[in-house]
């Protein structure tokens, strides 16, 4: 009976060998660590990641190397999740530091946003940025307008 | 018109929006009386970075925007295969006359063979799928072992 409960190392990976495993986005940025799964029957529907103190759910269809996953390899996603935009610095067209991204307003359940909210200090009110105002969105955000 | 005070001490931001360091020096041509470039301090343990004036896009209010990404930024980036295996870290970037870059990667330390010299591999830029927060290679990328 005990043998049935043991993980079979030849046919798959046990939960504990991928628990807290680092997950990276498409561009190689750390997107978080695995802390749980959502199942529908025996199929994994989504992953739960711990990222900067937040719990984020990622649909399992975005996992790129699930079939070739080994104990030593990292898990890669097929996209850059929008929660990674949080805390990015925002610069306007004139190079003025406007603050940091405090909230991402997700559009539906897609990996896209309606607008971003930024603030200069945590006690100051937030302001909106729309996607058509953004020139560079990679490691920080540079706008093509002055706000 | 701006003065040297408006340039020195400002953040240098590359074309991806990444913070490179603080501008420490202005380089002047004593005969032509023009600015040749700027020196950036990337932080502790890293050598100063010289940026020619041709690569400066804009002198902003709080930041200086560059129009290119210096090759030294890629040093010590982690390299992953398409399957998610960690290969090692970039130790050198070679650039040919035709602007084709080649990355030299030092393989990850194998603790079981710590007494052996760590191998290096060359990766042409054409084998790279993602070049950002870390380097992700294409599927079945060609790797050339160095002697």
Describe this structure in words.
The complex is a heterodimer of chains A (147) and B (147). Chain A is mainly β. Chain A contains two helices and eleven strands. Chain A has a six-stranded mixed β-sheet with strand order 9-8-7-6-11-10, with no helix packed on it. A five-stranded mixed β-sheet of chain A has the order 4-3-2-1-5, with no helix packed on it. The longest helix of chain A has 4 residues. The radius of gyration of chain A is 19 Å and the shape is elongated. Chain B contains no helices and 13 strands. Chain B is elongated and about 60 Å long. In chain B, the strands form two sheets. A seven-stranded mixed β-sheet of chain B has the order 11-12-7-8-9-10-13, with no helix packed on it. With 147 residues, chain B is mainly β. Helix content of chain B is 0%, strand content 45%. Chain B folds into two domains: 66 residues, Roll (SH3 type barrels), CATH 2.30.30.240; 72 residues, PRC-barrel domain (SH3 type barrels). At the A-B interface, strand 5 of A face strand 6 of B.
Present the secondary structure layout:
The complex is a heterodimer of chains A (147) and B (147).
Chain A: H1 2-5, H2 15-18, E1 22-24, E2 30-40, E3 43-51, E4 54-59, E5 75-76, E6 89-91, E7 97-106, E8 113-119, E9 127-130, E10 134-137, E11 141-143
Parallel strand pairs in A: 1-5, 6-11
Antiparallel strand pairs in A: 1-2, 2-3, 3-4, 6-7, 7-8, 8-9, 10-11
Chain B: E1 11-13, E2 19-28, E3 35-41, E4 49-52, E5 56-59, E6 63-66, E7 78-80, E8 86-95, E9 101-107, E10 120-124, E11 128-131, E12 135-137, E13 144-145
Question: What's a quick, concise take on this entry?
Answer:
Chain A has helices at residues 2-5, 15-18; strands at 22-24, 30-40, 43-51, 54-59, 75-76, 89-91, 97-106, 113-119, 127-130, 134-137, 141-143.
Work out the radius of gyration of chain B. 18 Å
Using the coordinates shown, work out and report the CATH topology of the largest domain in chain B.
SH3 type barrels
> CATH homologous superfamily of the largest domain in chain B - what is it?
PRC-barrel domain
Multimerization state: heterodimer
Distance between the termini of chain B: 54 Å
Mean pLDDT of chain B: 88
Strand order of the largest sheet of chain A: 9-8-7-6-11-10
Q: Could you tell me which chain pair has the largest interface and how many residues each side has?
A: A-B, 30 and 28 residues
Number of helical segments with 4 or more residues of chain A: 2
> How would you sum up the major sheet of chain A?
6 strands, mixed
DSSP strand tally of chain B: 13
Strand content of chain A: 35-45%
Series of secondary-structure elements of chain B, N-terminal to C-terminal: EEEEEEEEEEEEE
Domain tally of chain B: 2
Share in β-strands of chain B: 35-45%
